[in-house]
Specification:
- The protein is an alpha/beta fold.
- The protein has a domain at 9-188 and 219-253 and 299-315: NAD(P)-binding Rossmann-like Domain (Rossmann fold), CATH 3.40.50.
- The chain contains 10 helices and 14 strands.
- It has helices at residues 21-24, 48-57, 74-83, 107-128, 160-174, 195-205, 222-238, 257-270, 303-309, 316-330, and strands at residues 17-18, 40-43, 61-62, 90-93, 132-137, 179-184, 187-188, 208-212, 216-217, 220-221, 245-248, 255-256, 279-283, 311-312.
- A 6-stranded parallel sheet has the order 3-2-4-5-6-11, sandwiched between helices. It has a two-stranded parallel sheet with strand order 1-14.
- Helix 4 links the parallel strand 4 and strand 5 (132-137).
- Helix 3 runs parallel beside helix 4, helix 4 runs parallel beside helix 5 and helix 8 crosses helix 10 (316-330).
- The longest helix has 22 residues, at 107-128.
- The termini are far apart.
């Protein structure tokens, strides 16, 4: 999938902005004309990225509940949008089916949530000239080799989850509206079910853990991704021609799941988290079989986002530090 024609990308920023937690706390719309600083529809408000978006947007977020908009029923999503009375500045979809292994048994459900509902939202937005923001995944790529994937790399998902996300990507592009589709990797937050919280729980209960070391990617802090989303959307709205396309967006750097676990425990100890774990053994994926095959290479090249918008997410270790600090503060 191509991420957009070069003719639509004439804005080249003078400097790259590396996001920080202090800048992530700033309000949405500060750099926009008042006519563009209105409300934004946010789907998926209870998820990691969706909840971060709602926090950053404050009163400008319009987050319908799961009861109001059920992504398992695409036509119901479309009907809700048709009845919505106001015109938002943009629509952001942070809702997704992310149970990678369960998707092997529930592929039709995954497609309803990850492809069919986003396709209808994209169509709704395209007809009204409303920018649509969506999130995709490194799982759309075949996962081989060692070079980071670019937006022009050939796709080839290994799992039902990956296929459902790729179908959503293709449907959104086919709507021919204004859109930003952020492919990201290994998302986590201080709350919810994710690798960081799983490791902290297991590390507090066990002395020995085994974690795979042959899958490589970039852990991405949900708050950083949410902030990058809004800053990128601001920049896109200010351009003469909206730079629609797929963009890779993840924290910089790379590690394995084993390296990620080791760093979680190292930082958590410094912050005083209660841990029993003494050893984290490195194992190959073959010793930890799962129903869905995982990509070994989840590296994403984010140069296009830097070039077009001047935005770069911080190193993944910085994201982890900020996440653990937020988690520590919330538990006090």
């Amino acid at each position: 999938m191509q991420s957009g024609s070069s003719a639509s990308r004439k804005f080249i920023p003078k400097a790259v902005t590396v996001l920080t937690l202090s800048s992530a706390s700033s309000a949405w719309g500060v750099g926009l004309p008042s006519s563009l600083g209105g409300p934004i529809l946010v789907f998926g408000k209870i998820g990691q990225v969706g909840s971060a978006l709602v926090r950053l947007l404050g009163s400008r977020a319009i987050p319908p509940s799961v009861e109001e908009v059920d992504f398992e029923k695409p036509r119901a999503v479309s009907s809700w949008l048709e009845r919505y009375p106001a015109r938002p500045v943009a629509v952001i979809n942070a809702a997704a089916y992310t149970q990678v292994d369960q998707a092997e048994k529930e592929e039709s459900r995954a497609f309803s949530i990850n492809a069919e509902s986003p396709a209808l939202i994209a169509s709704y937005c395209a007809k009204r000239d409303i920018p649509f923001v969506h999130y995709s995944t490194d799982y759309v790529y075949p996962g081989d080799g060692v070079e980071p994937w670019t937006e022009q790399s050939k796709t080839g998902p290994l799992s039902a989850y990956g296929r459902s996300k790729l179908a959503g990507d293709e449907a959104i592009a086919a709507a021919h509206g204004k859109f930003l589709n952020f492919r990201t990797s290994w998302v986590y937050d201080s709350m919810g079910q994710n690798f960081v919280n799983t490791m902290l729980k297991l590390g507090a209960e066990r002395e020995n853990l085994r974690v795979v070391s042959d899958q490589i990617g970039a852990p991405t802090y949900a708050l950083h991704l949410a902030h990058a989303t809004l800053r990128t959307l601001e920049a896109a709205l200010l351009q003469a021609r909206f730079p629609s396309g797929v963009y890779h967006a993840c924290n910089s750097g790379e590690t394995s799941w084993h390296g990620f676990a080791e760093e979680i425990f190292a930082q958590a100890r410094k912050l005083g988290f209660p841990l029993k774990v003494k050893e984290v053994k490195s194992i190959p994926s073959s010793e930890y079989p799962t129903p869905a095959r995982r990509p070994e290479n989840s590296r994403l090249n984010c140069a296009e986002m830097r070039k077009v918008f001047g935005i770069e997410l911080p190193n993944w270790k910085i994201g982890l530090k900020e996440c653990l600090e937020a988690k520590g503060h919330s538990s006090q």
